[in-house]
Amino acid sequence: MRLTFYYPTGATIVRDNKIAQFTTEDIKIGDLLAGEKKQIDLPVYLVGDQGEVKKAKVLMVYVPANVRSSFQKEVTQATTVSKFNLALNLSVPASVTSGQTMSYVLDYRNESEAELTNLQLQFSYPTGFAFTNAIPPSARGNSLWRLDKLAPGESGKIIINGRLLGKERDSKAISLVVQQTVGDLLVDYEKISANTAVAGAPLVTSVLLNGGTDFRPKLGDDLDYQILFTNNSRVDLLGLTVVARLNGTMFDFSRYNGDGLVDQAKQTITWSAASTPLLNRLAAGQQGAVNFRIALKRAFPSGSLGTKDFSIGVTSQVDTPTLPPGFSASRLTATNELVTRIATLPTLDPSANRSDPNFGGGGPLPPKVGERTYYTVHWVLTNGGNALNAARLVANLPTGVNWENKVRTSNGLVAPIWRSAARQIIWDVGAIPAGLGSTQAKYEAWFQISIIPTSTQSGQRLKLVEAGQIEGNDSLSQQAIVVRFDAIDNDHLLDYPNQGTVGE
User: Fold this and answer.
1) Where are the beta strands (DSSP E) in 239-345?
2) What is the chain's pLDDT, residue by residue, as a tens digit (504 residues)?
3) Which of 136, 243, 288, 465 has the fewest CB atoms within 10 Å of its CB?
């Protein structure tokens, strides 16, 4: 006969003066004669909340005499945690305002008929709790108290003071584990926990860019920032100060417009009650705002580009000397930050030549009706912004322009391809790195085309390549990028300008 015992959840099992890590235990019973009884004791500590039901299960597998098959029987037994020898009452505020001072109060009492010894109380504070002091002082680390002896009926109290920070509607849990020394071991004896909800902060601020938080500007764009602030307390806030700290290298302070005081060296803009009447008094429940306009620089800095150059940020800080009830700091302060990625702006410089040292050239210039003239198109790709992934360049050839299948690129790049059915040139460059053309060599491609003007084109200039576009995904902002580039005509050749009008 064999038994498998399944311990209840939360059980502490001590074996050979050690806390065991297993949750099930196999027990060999051997033979059990008819009418015989056996009892097995399995000592265990059950820890849980008062009223919590703990279930243990045993599975018995046996083979009756003179039978080859095995049988099994399963029994489940429930135990209710009905009473604590050490009664605990943990009082916490139902809700607090973020940053407000608060207290956790633990009342304990020995309700058993025996003295309790060698207990320790270990608190686990919620994230955002800042300990200030406690009565009585803790034995270690502001979270551990020891009870060497507690006589029957004896009681005590622990008061823990601090501040709780969190976002509105956060639920912050504090937990307590009472442990008892058993031999050389600390065994969990009782557990209790409680929750506090975080109410809205008394003063909050936020930052908007061009009316929202997800705007992705391009180089040279105007940036309209708004700093909002709200008094959520029940008292009027007096003498407020608002500071905007501009983070990053890409702000153009020469194009600043606003009524805040600018410190360009510190990259800050400050509004005070002296310049902004609203800041003299912000009534309970009132919202206010300050605004300013500034621009992005039109180009990234020369030299090595870093990630910091591809994003900008504005940190708002609003503070007041007015403190709502329950706050002990010297000033009430609210901060927030908006970080914005700068959208990549790659550029293509398209041009054309009459002749090329690799492809050659030929045909009349200016072009003539019925005669073929050859041109070489040159694409130069640069990128002063973020790297682009899955990038390609796409353009079409006008009707009557012929693809001559002569192509070359710089630095072993993949060559543009011609799709005749769509009359489309596609240059799949893949990744376009940041700093292309400044910190890295620019991408270049050359391809030859030809055209035989018709009589209907006599006296006109000829378009060689239609306007096209660069497509890709910004590697930092993950935004899909489409940048258009200009068409090319035969009157703006680099080697023979103003020679594009078709003659008879």
Assistant:
1) 241-247, 251-258, 261-263, 268-271, 281-282, 287-296, 311-320, 332-341
2) 888 989 888 787 877 777 777 888 888 888 878 888 888 888 787 777 777 888 999 998 888 888 888 888 999 998 887 777 899 999 999 988 887 889 999 999 999 999 999 999 999 999 999 999 999 999 999 999 999 999 999 999 999 999 898 888 899 999 999 988 877 778 888 889 999 999 878 899 999 999 999 888 877 889 999 999 999 888 999 999 999 999 998 999 999 999 999 999 999 999 999 889 999 999 999 999 999 999 998 776 655 455 556 789 999 999 999 988 877 677 888 999 999 988 767 889 999 999 888 898 899 999 999 999 999 999 999 987 778 899 999 999 999 999 999 999 998 999 999 999 999 999 999 999 987 887 789 999 999 999 999 999 999 999 999 999 999 988 877 778 888 899 999 999 999 999 999 998
3) 136
Confidence (pTM): 0.49
In order of their start, the domains of the chain are: 2-80 (no CATH), 86-199 (2.60.40.10), 217-337 (2.60.40.10), 346-489 (2.60.40.1510)
The helix (run of H) or strand (run of E) holding residue 90 is strand 86-91
Total count of residues recorded for the chain: 504
Helix, strand and coil percent figures for the chain, each rounded to 5: 0, 55, 45
State the burial class of residue 370 (Cβ atoms within 10 Å of its Cβ: 0-12, 13-18, 19+). exposed
The one-letter amino acid at 14: V
Task: Count CA within 13 A, CB hemisphere, residue 201.
Answer: 20
Nearest to 430 by CA among 451, 449, 409: 409
Compute the distance between CA of residue 171 and CA of residue 251 in angstroms, rounded to an integer: 39
Q: Is 153 left (phi over 0), alpha (psi -120 to 50) or beta?
A: left
Q: How far is CA 494 from the centre of its chain?
A: 49
Q: DSSP letter string over 142-183?
A: TTEEEEEEE-TT-EEEEEEEEEE---TT-EEEEEEEEEEEET
